[in-house]
Amino acid sequence: MSLVSTGGHSLASGPLPNFRTTPPPRRRPSLPYLKTPRAAIVESRPVRVPPATRDNGNGGLVLVSAGAAGGGGGGGGSRAEDMQAEARAMARAVDAPVFNPELIASKYGRRPIEVVRRMLEILTAIGSFGLKLWLDERNGVFDQNKKVRATELRQIFTRLGPTFVKLGQGLSTRPDICPPEFLEELSELQDDLPTFPDEEAFACIERELGVSLDSIYSTITPSPVAAASLGQVYKAKLKNSGQTVAVKVQRPGIEKAIGLDFYLIRGLGGLINKYVDFITSDVVALIDEFVFRVYQELNYVQEGQNARRFKKLYADKEDIMVPDIFWEYTSGKVLTMEWVEGVKLNQQEAIEGQGLKVLDLVNTGIQCSLRQLLEYGYFHADPHPGNLLATPEGKLAFLDFGMMSETPEEARFAIIGHVVHLVNRDYEAMAQDYYALKFLSPDVDVTPIVPALQNFFDDALNYTVSELNFKTLVDGLGAVFYQYPFNVPAYYALILRSLTVLEGLALYADPNFKVLAASYPYFAKRLLTDPNPYLRDALVELLFKDGRFRWARLENLLEQGSKDRDFSAKDALQPVLKLLLAPDGEELRRLVVKEAVYVSEAVVLTSVVDTYNSIPTVLRPPILNGNGRGPLPMTDAEVLRIREFRDLVVRVWGLLQTSEDFDPALFQPILQVLQQPEARSLGGRVIGGVTQRLAARLLQQVLRTPPPVPT
């Protein structure tokens, strides 16, 4: 089965219903056709990509090449040729639509009849459907009518147009929200939408590229292999290279179709801002951010640049595939990209039939998404099943780069730090994180927020990581956000959407799958290996508490971090060890000395006890003071506690040693510390500390009163 994406949508080859009542006459291009069955698409959304634009000095924006650095073009030319082809594509897209809320408001503000007509159309469709659900529930026939109602809802969304198709696509990936009947029906919105006439699509290609169809392609499918709300895709073969490509053509009149809906939605957002007090976020700002991205999706050159940037950042992993772009055959309304063979990620049987495992692919998607969100900050904001394909080689292919977004650098580290504070149950620090995340303005007092966080997370953290559901956390945080003056940035809403969609995909394959459990190895790896000062301090905070080193926590981090394929034992703990060399590392050096004393004492004491226990009972002489209970003044519970501590340290050392790239030179910074002027006494302090503790125990042994001799 072959799949591609058409602007937020996916293609699965298979017959499509004919949505035209009477087939219009078609102007056939003079070339043979590929005999490919019809298929359909599911759509994606655009996103503002700051690096792809710059100010032109006159208050406007100019597109800047983001793909040139991604390597040669799809045609296989040199980098210079590819950059020139991209520049020509940008010139062809100079008139691409740009979101301007004032212009849209001015346009539809003068058309009250058109606005009222559309409003009534939406209210009538949604209202009548809601009434049917209410009557079904009241009459006790809700369950038996689920299939019928699901079909009706899909038809309503399709009839209402692109805006509502997007809504249906989002719902189709949430098995925890929608019943199975609705999921199955709404998933058709990903690859089963009406097409527009082929002659219009072919005319658009010739008009946009400025050449005849038969001069570009040796073959092209007579009908689209996929159809989305924003466009439809044809499979073709380039005449000059023979390479198979996907040609996405924008649906005519799409800007008008979505413009009015967004005008109405924006008006609704204004009413919410004005009259709904419990929603503290700027709803209009969130809507504007989303609409801005949708309008960017209408510029296919921008989507091509997004794809190139994404490929450069993330396709370095052998299990990730990103199609290349053919700039010479791309414009604002036509996008030509490498053809991808694959199966949609929610088609479990088809994937397993190829000898692949869905959960392996989902895990690949999660790890890649974590890199997107927290490493480079540039992420795919619409990872629904139609945009994620399993290739026959076992790779995960990303499609449809219309909707992208970025996580600010400060926020990336703050998110990881937030996870550390959550694990430590440091709710005051969690509340402070919201300043860095830009959730709260600096003048807001977080003191009353701390108890709310504690009340929710104390319950949530009673679950293990493997039991904790991402949606549970999102819902709980949402309840906290509603109570206080939080202003959630638009990028955060897209992050939540991206992760909840991935969790929804995983639930198709395994109802017990938890995104948080699958994500933890990545967080552990970043904490152990990332040299960023913020994350280094977070790791120190995680490992030290009340002046003691938490070996169990380090053991857990090493166990989890080693599950990440990019984990390197050679890099583990390097950030913390290097801090020992820093001028501001005195506090850490003091803690290290203290912990080294504890470890040394545990090793010595357990060695003494083990040696004593190895002596046959009849040969064990009374130790000192005539006491035959043992060599040290310790209870059995004390001996057990110290032995467990020693074993824990040994296990941590074993975890490091068993790693393939482990190098004892990892701890070279400790030796360097001993040579530093400000820390030359470190070794002496450790030896002195151990000596003092052992001497104290020996003195206790000497002064201990012998047990009475039984009569």
From TrEMBL:
Matching entries from InterPro entries are given as:
ABC1_dom (IPR004147), Kinase-like_dom_sf (IPR011009), Prot_kinase_dom (IPR000719), UbiB_kinase (IPR050154)
Q: Where is this region: Disordered?
A: 1-33
Q: Which GO terms describe its molecular function?
A: ATP binding; protein kinase activity
A single Pfam family it belongs to is: ABC1
| Domain Protein kinase, residue spans | 219-549
**Family assignment?**
Belongs to the protein kinase superfamily. ADCK protein kinase family.
User: What is the name listed in the Swiss-Prot or TrEMBL entry for this protein?
Assistant: Protein kinase domain-containing protein
* Organism (species): Linum trigynum
